[in-house]
Design goal:
296 residues, alpha+beta, Triger factor/SurA peptide-binding fold, Chitinase A, domain 3, 2 domains, 51% helix, elongated
Amino acid sequence: MKKTLLLFMLCCAILLSACAVPHADPTATPTEEPTPTETPIPEPTPTFPPAAARVNGLVIAIEDVDLKKAQLREAYEQLGEDVPDDAALREEAMDDLINETLFLSAAQLRGIAPDNTDLETQTQALCIKLGSCDALREWQSQNHYNQDSFRRALERETAAANMREVIFAQLKDTEQLHVYRIWSERRSDLDEVMNRLNMGISFTEMAKNYDEVTGGDMSWFPRGVLFSQEAEDRIFDLNAGEHTDIMELDGVYNIFYVAEKQTGRAMDTQVQQLAQRKALTDWLEEQRKQAQIEIL
């Protein structure tokens, strides 16, 4: 897993959990002592920083690449791992920023990217969540952000969160199989199983003899989660109540049985995480093939 997650997920957790800004209390009277107030973080004037790259016409600032490098370096150090050299850090930082900008580009095309009002509302909500705008400025400083770079990061992450919802929503219509498996390191064992299956003996009953813990039950899963493409194609071609022939996978002999097939079924938590990760990976790969990416 990429080492960017340590700081990136910290940022995401704060950004995505921001709530609406409450209205100020209008009940104070002139006789009360005035309460000192801090200056809220103002909305920055749009600028065009020097570019390190362009993705579908959107600028990746040199400043943001340097910021991401610093965050990556600290993440490696906190994990106790060797810090890559500057060139490798720059490549990893650029790769992350390209992915984030692809999300932003797609969100803009769909009309679900945040506008200035959204970003200002989120920023003020973060001031409240952290206790004050001064606390937010301190957090920004600790994580190498200035006002403009933080706003750009907030825009990219908000757009990415919106696009993830779109991508994950498509998984609701995914076909899933409920699969059982009988396996052995000896081919002769599976030959015997096939003979019994041909005699009409229940697959699920035999599976219990080969795995007393799970009974051979692999539960439900969609494509792209557990198997190689070749094995997956053979399993998903089956109808409910059918089994594969003997398949050798990584030196182990297997027979798979499809007990049920269903579309739109809610996924188990772990399977859902794997499916979402694959969906994001596939989406980014496809976007990179189509995108106009210019490294300056």
